[in-house]
Amino acid sequence: MRRFGRENRKLLASLLAIVLFGAAAPWFMSLIANPVTKHRRYVVDSTGQSNLRFWLVTWEAYDGELWIGRPAELNRETFDRLTGCLDYTSRPPSAMLLRWTIKSVSDDRVVAEGKGTPINPTADDCASTRSGHVLSLGKIAISPGRYRFDLEFGVQFLETMNFPVEVDLYCCELKSRPQTRLGCFPGIFAFVVFPILILSFGLLILILLIRAGMYIYALFASARDQAAPPK
Question: pTM score, two decimals?
Answer without folding.
Answer: 0.75
